[in-house]
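Good morning C.,

I know you're traveling, so I'll keep this short. The sequence:
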Amino acid sequence: MPPPPPETTTVTARLPATRLPSVALAAGMAFLAGATDIAGLVRLRDLFVSFMSGNTTLLGLALGQADLPHAGRIAAVIGLFVAGAAAGTVLATLLPRRHALAVMAATTALLAAALPWPPAAPWILIVAMGLLNAAMTRIGRASVSLTYVTGTLVRVAQGIGLLLCGRRPAAGWALQAALWLCLLAGAVAAVRAEQAAGADLLWPLPAMAAVLTLLAAAVPDEADAPAARPPAAQAHADAPRQAQA
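The C-alpha cells, ready to paste straight into the viewer:
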C-alpha cells in the first residue's frame, strides 16, 4: 500500500525553534517597510516608495491624461525600486549564506544616507525598499513577502478559504497574515511618531534598520539557507522529510 501523501500545515504548527529568529527578523523588516512607506508618502505626497502596484496604476492614469511630466516622475520611482530590488538580488546571490545580513547592512547604509540630504531622501528610500525585498524571501518552506501586500493578502485569503472547506492550507499563510499586521503596525507607528514630534522624522528608520542588521548577524546560517538554495536543490532537500511524513 503506498504511503499517504504528506499533510500540509501552517508554518506556525511545526515551526522549528531554529526558525524563530528568522520569523522575528521578517516581522521587523515588515514593520520597517511600513514605517518607511509612510515617510516616503509624506514626502512624495501621492506616490509610494514600496507599493509599486499603486504606482503602476497612477502611471497608467498619468499616461492616459497625457501628463508626461508626472508620468516621468512615477516611472522614475518604479525604475529606482526595480534597481534596488536588482541590487539586493545581486547581494543575495553573491552572499547566499549571509544574504539577510548583507542586504540589511546595505539597507541601513542607504537609510542613513538619506538623513543629510532631505531633498533626495524619498528617492533614496525607494531604492532602500527595493533592496529590502531581497533580504528574505523564504522561511523554511514558506515564502515571505515583505512589501508585496496584495500577494500577501491573497495567500491569507487562500488559507482561510481552504480552512472553510475543511482542508489544511499550505505552509506560510498564517505567517503572511502576521507580516501584513507588522507592516500595518509600522505605518501606524510612523504616523503617531511624526504627530507626536510635530515634524517629519527620518532618523528612526536607519536606527531600526541597524537593530535588524544586528539581529540578522545573530540569525544562524541554516535559517538563511532555504532562501539561498535553487528550487531543484530545495526540492531534493525536502524529499526525505516528505517520505517520512
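Safe travels,
E.
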